[in-house]
Amino acid sequence: MTRKGRRLVMIGVSGLVLVAALALVLVAMRDTIVFFRAPSEVVASGPVGTRIRLGGLVEAGSVRRNPDQVAEFAVEDGGARVPVRYKGILPDLFREGQGVVAEGVLTASGTFMADTVLARHDETYMPREVVDALKAQGRWQEGSGLRQTTQR
Amino acid sequence: MLVEAGHYAFALALGLSVLQFAVPLWGARTGDPVLMATARPAAFGVFGLIAFSFVALTVAHVTSDFSVVNVVENSHTLKPLIYKVSGVWGNHEGSMLLWVLILALFGALVAANPRSVPLRLRTNALSVQASIVCAFQLFVLFSSNPFQRVDPAPLEGQDLNPILQDLGLAIHPPLLYVGYVGFSMTYAFAMAALIDGRVDAVWARTVRPWALLAWSFLTLGIAMGSYWAYYELGWGGFWFWDPVENASLMPWLAGTALIHSLVVMEKREALKVWTILLAILTFSLSLLGAFLVRSGILTSVHTFAVDPGRGVFILAILGVFIGGSLAMFAWRAPLLRHGGLFAPISREGALILNNLFLASACATVLLGTLYPLALEAVTGAKISVGPPYFMLTFVPLVVPLLLLVPFGQRLAWKRGDALAAGQRLLAALAAALAVGLGLLALRWGGPVAAPLGIGLGVFLILGSATEVWSRAWAPGRGAKLALRRAFGLPRATWGGVLAHAGIGVTVIGLAAQAWSGETIASARVGQVLEVGGYQAKLVSLSTRPGPNYTAQVATLEVSRAGTGLGTVDAEKRTYPAREMTTTEAGLLTVGASQFYASLGEVSSDGAVGLRLYAKPLILLIWLGALVMAAGGALSLSDRTLRLGAPSRVGTGRLAAAE
Predict the structure, then answer these.
(1) A29 shares its domain with A39
(2) Residues B462 and B547 placed together within one structural domain of the fold
(3) In this predicted structure, what is the pLDDT of residue A125?
(4) Cα dihedral: A7, A11, A12, A17 (round 10)
(5) How many CB pairs under 8 A join A and B?
(6) Which range marks the domain in which residue B449 is found?
(7) 262-301 of B, contacting A, C-beta below 8 A
């Protein structure tokens, strides 16, 4: 093979792999990203059927655990509340009045069917999205009983 | 008093590393051997001082000296000794100290290495390494000081986050840091080459052991973290495509590309510019990982609340070292003499393809990790990029790479013969197809990914083994000779075979997870639950005291097809010091497969929430990583690569090394 031919093969193969990678990224970005929404946004726009992340505080007194391992609770941000159903074992740090992020789909009836409820490593940690959602509702005070510890 | 001494030693080390940075660099510029020679003792001194300060902090933790803030926040008198020690790096400040310690350790190792590394190269590399040490020392001293005192001293500490009180997580950070930080050495050598404007096969031979060492440890560290997440988080998952996990995967991918391109450079004096760039990028990705984990800009299952001021500091370090090195690269890389082009079908051609795929895969992970941050900064929209994205991008890029691995290994340098390579692989290919199709028929109707993936894994293992076979076996000369020749192969060859077979083992473990079963249910004592062929009977529910916690324990009797396999305890531990609970999964190992039980809520009427999993062949995932790291270690012990061994260029052994 000539020098030029070799160079062409190299450039051709590299281009092919890079284009394939780029195409994969673009397709995946369109189909798989999940938006974060606060309860008031969900109630206002009602994105039924699309996968979202719902973040806020677990409403006090709302948690009910059914015998078939389905948990029901509500997520609120001071402006609105969204009822959530989740089958499975809730994370260790799931508490009423604490921050939570649930991923799933909103049904037409207004109930959020979660398949993932995010766990945290630290009892005083508040998910950043939840802090922002609470700030938007004027419910957040800096250092409001949250010991800012640093770990790891 | 010891703590102050440690603090003082650390500050002294900062001064010394400033000298280690400036003086030898000046010496190398002016060609003054006396100034250049200062790099070695300075590197030893810096390491000694930092090691002393690390010991001082460890003593404070072990003796529960609650006049030190760091100890108060992360320790407790009742904590078992091992976690008092691991608590030193189980927090931000202490782990940064460990990070700096390992940085200095690598500097000292390079300085101690009597191998004939060209003096200018070594001097410049030590100087660059000192600049990295400096930056992180400033970070520790000014924004993450672990030596701060508190007055009055409290009587009791706040305890280490219970989830970190675990043997796996005690050794995970040191392994991971040796990996991350080890790539600082390849970075330093790359910068030294750019400063000198010269790079050749000797450079590649100097750098390769460091890259291999870092890569092996990073492999172990990632595997350890993944195994920990599997048994400690109680979800039965081992990889969540979480940003923090991606932060460790990216340097691993780039580092894997680097150890391959270094081979090309050593053998063929080609890919010089790309290898230098890769060395810079690998460490840059390590730094990026440090930034992502510690700045608190990410929401992840692994991050903790962190002071934003620190994020800015690390961002500055990131800017200086990544920006500086890339600017240096743009300025000096044109000076490097290019190697020739070569045939597409050859060992070097295959290694380029390897680099291409690994770099692309790394780029997709990088995009998936940073895109949410970029989007939020620009539009304010908050999104998350989860496993589906990575399954769609990363997996399709890695599968063809893995398919090509055995072919690449079979190709000769300079001019390979694709057909001959294929012929030699026929046996491996046939066996892999037989296994894949056999499993497909056996589990007809099940997920297709599992048999196909297992077939791929078998192909990787047997394809690697072909390397030994084809080099040891001479037709008609008997098995004894073949055995002798197999054992006579250079360790680097065996290392390569092991590492690639290790990937095969991991791939089999990953693929088999398509067959895993999950049952979430609540049960009463005496009730039997079923998951993936296992029967689990809830025998009892009890409470058990631990050293600094009380545990609620569900005991399950596990059997399969009528034969009892034993009992497992799924625990929920409550740590009073932090009012926190952790889940300890109950694991029952059958061969490489595991039965996994995790305890949920216990309701007032006595119903016990349980999450049960059947995880076929799951241990192979981490076993494969161990095999990979063992392969790396074996290559390192090869006399042509060994750290500290005099290089014997031109001997027959070297010629046979690849």
Answers:
(1) no
(2) no
(3) 56
(4) 150
(5) 173
(6) 425-514+620-656
(7) 293, 296-297, 299, 301
Contact flag B91-A152 (C-beta cutoff 8 Å): yes
Residue A102 included in any domain: yes
CA distance A2 to chain B (A): 9
Residues A49 and A80 in one domain: yes
Domain end, chosen from B126, B145, B165, is at: B165
- pLDDT tens per residue, range B253-295: 999 999 999 999 988 888 889 999 999 999 999 999 888 887 7
Q: Do residue B533 and residue B570 come from a single domain?
A: yes
Q: Are residues B508 and B524 in the same domain?
A: no
Q: Please answer whether residues B568 and B652 qualify as being in contact, where contact means their C-beta atoms are separated by less than 8 angstroms.
A: no
Chain B nearest-CA distance from A109, in A, is: 24
Q: Summarize the confidence of residues B157-161 as an average pLDDT.
A: 82
- Per DSSP, which regions of chain A are E strands? 34-37, 51-58, 64-65, 70-76, 81-87, 99-106, 112-117
Cβ separation of A13 and B304 shorter than 8 Å? no
Cβ of A17 within 8 Å of Cβ of B356? The answer is yes
Lowest model confidence (mean pLDDT) among A129-143, B292-306, B399-413, B550-564: B292-306
Residue B467 within a domain: yes
Q: Report yes or no on A148 lying in a domain.
A: no
pLDDT of residue B298: 62
Residue B6 pLDDT > 60: yes
Give the ipTM of the model, two decimals please. Answer: 0.80
Look at residues B619, B588, B583 and name the one whose alpha carbon lies nearest to residue B598: B583
**Minimum-distance CB partner of B343 among A1, A93, A121:** A1
Do B392 and A28 count as a contact with CB atoms less than 8 A apart? yes
Answer left, alpha or beta for residue B527, where phi above 0 means left and psi between -120 and 50 means alpha.
beta
The answer to whether the CB atoms of B356 and A14 lie below 8 A apart is: yes
Sign of the torsion formed by the C-alpha atoms of B246, B250, B253 and B256? negative
* Closest C-alpha to B264, from B125, B394, B363, B411: B411
Residue B602 has pLDDT above 60, yes or no: yes
B64 belongs to a structural domain: yes
Q: Lowest-pLDDT range, B159-168, B481-490, B556-565? A: B159-168
Contact B341 A7 (CB under 8 A): yes
Is 80 exceeded by the pLDDT of residue B116? no
**Chain B positions in Cβ-Cβ contact with residue A68 (cut-off 8 Å):** 521-522
> Which residue range(s) make up the domain with A21?
1-33
* pLDDT average, residue stretch B406-416: 87
Report the run of H or E that residue B321 belongs to, with start and end: none
pTM given for the model: 0.91
B458, B436 Cβ separation under 8 angstroms: yes
